[in-house]
Amino acid sequence: MKIGSIHTIGAIAQFLGRTVVGDESLIVTGINEIHRVEAGDLVFVDHPKYYDKAVHSAATFILIDKEVEVPAGKALIISPEPFDDYNKLTRKFSPYRPQMSMTGENCQIAESAHLSPNCFIGHDVTIGENVTIHPGAYIGDGTVIEENTIIGPNAIIGHYAFYYKKKPNGYDRMHSCGFVYIEKNVEIGAGTTIDAGVSAITRIGEGTKIDNQVQIGHDTIIGKHCLIAAQVGIAGCVTLEDRVTMWGQVGCISDVTIGEGAVILAQSGISKSLEGGKVYFGSPCEEAKQKMRELATIKNLVENRRK
Description:
By secondary structure, the protein is of the alpha/beta class. 14% of the residues lie in helices and 32% in strands. It has a 10-stranded mixed beta sheet, with helices on one face. It is globular, with a radius of gyration of 22 Å. InterPro entries: Hexapep, LpxD, Trimer_LpxA-like_sf, UDP_GlcNAc_AcTrfase_non-rep. One of its GO terms (molecular function) is N-acyltransferase activity.
């Protein structure tokens, strides 16, 4: 999320009531979680496992619960509760805006777009030429839908990211301030859910076709001309390169990359990044030919034992 106005890291630390380690005059241009950070961004980290990753990421500013060595050109904000302070910042720069009408403020909707009855359109939404949105769809704040896209009935585009921190009294949700970007010629089936980015973009690439009742998590990037069948579940921060096919009920863990042209057969479970140009099957999935040989071997062992 880009914060627009000019804020120094010193001013942000003062707002939080925290101290800075490093140059307080450096300018913060954005706020992002670890998977999508860029130079000028502020990121939070509250677990030793990720200290090094955060400090040496593209982020210029690190909201952290321990003082560590600061690389040149970066600065830290020391906080006992980095998650809570991060939420304070995202709520400050992207506050929740209640909405009482079916179409929000500051929307840009092409005259040729067709919005069926009972569609909810949030604030700051952009809808391109010849877009069709069927009844009951929800289009969340900031969503961009390019031309010739079809959104199926009761699809949910841009709801909150599923991102929580476990605390002694339950779970605290990270405030979502990202959005969804849908490129041209995309089709999204009935009842499909595409979560908003936590602080960046969940993107669906040009020409991709998504079946009914599919779940796509926050900050996931789907490439061009992908094919995703019914009941697929894709976690957050996944990257599907172009022309990936996922057949029904495939499940995919977060923070992996599926290479261009990969095909994942039905009911497979993806637990690691996969190379492109291959066919995969099983849970955890492997190359389909190898997996089939393994299953045949197990079947033969069972049959021999019975004999």
